[in-house]
Amino acid sequence: MKILVTAGPTREPIDPVRFLTNRSSGKMGYELAAAFAHAGHSVLLISGPTALDVPDGVDYMPVETAEDMHRAVSHHIGRMEVAVFAAAVADYAPKELAPEKIKKTGETMTLELVRTPDILGSARGAMGFEGTLVGFAAETQNLVENAKDKLERKGCDLVIANDVSKPGIGFDSDHNEVLLVFADHTEPLPLGSKHDLAHTLVRRITELTC
Ligand code: C5P
């Protein structure tokens, strides 16, 4: 099958030397891309900046901003059978990119931010994607409710939810403990390495698609 995976953080520039980003390492998305390729699928990994090596056998498209990622996903999703959105996309970006390095002046400064495109949220609508759609939900509270709400609002077949308030899992960790949220049931998966979890997720996502 043809699989699209988004991964990593995005970088939203403030001026030529500064940007807004988040703690995503990209590990979960890269492990998923590697596991799909290992299972014999054709994978396009669209990724924000990470320190990771591109997995063997995966087509790779680097992007920086949420806007870039949105454009890349819109361009490629039409020929995919499965799309897995593991990227931690910035929700807001600076309204303006200062052409020169911003100098320190007053004691405080205000940065005006605007919403970035909701890539997962536009897959079903604007992009017309009809394949298997999988999103992630990193939450610090009301994990199940928020994940179910995301599943419905964004038209996902599966939301992989993790509680990022728990120490040692999720962002920037090698381990993860997730809850699979389907339309009609939920299923907890045990704590494990992102590597092993990726293989389990590939099996479950493939079952959904067949
Ligand atoms: O709403 P929230 O950001 O928690 O949703 C997370 C899910 O939505 C992830 O699958 C993420 O990759 C995706 N997302 C996206 N575009 C955004 C924000 C989130 O594709 N602008």
Describe the 3D structure.
The chain has helices at residues 27-38, 66-76, 119-123, 143-154, 194-209; strands at 2-7, 12-15, 18-20, 42-47, 58-62, 82-85, 92-94, 113-115, 132-139, 158-163, 175-176, 179-181, 186-188, 192-193. The chain is α/β, with parallel strands linked by helices. The chain has a single domain (2-98, 109-209), classed as Rossmann fold, CATH 3.40.50. The strands form four sheets. The chain has an eight-stranded mixed β-sheet with strand order 5-4-1-6-9-10-12-13, with helices on both faces. A two-stranded antiparallel sheet has the order 2-3. A hairpin with a 2-residue loop joins strand 2 (12-15) and strand 3 (18-20). The structure holds cytidine-5'-monophosphate. The site of cytidine-5'-monophosphate has 14 residues, from helix 3 and strand 9. Cytidine-5'-monophosphate binds next to helix 3 and strand 9.
Summary keywords:
210 residues; 27% helix; 28% strand; globular; eight-stranded mixed beta sheet; binds cytidine-5'-monophosphate; Rossmann fold; alpha/beta
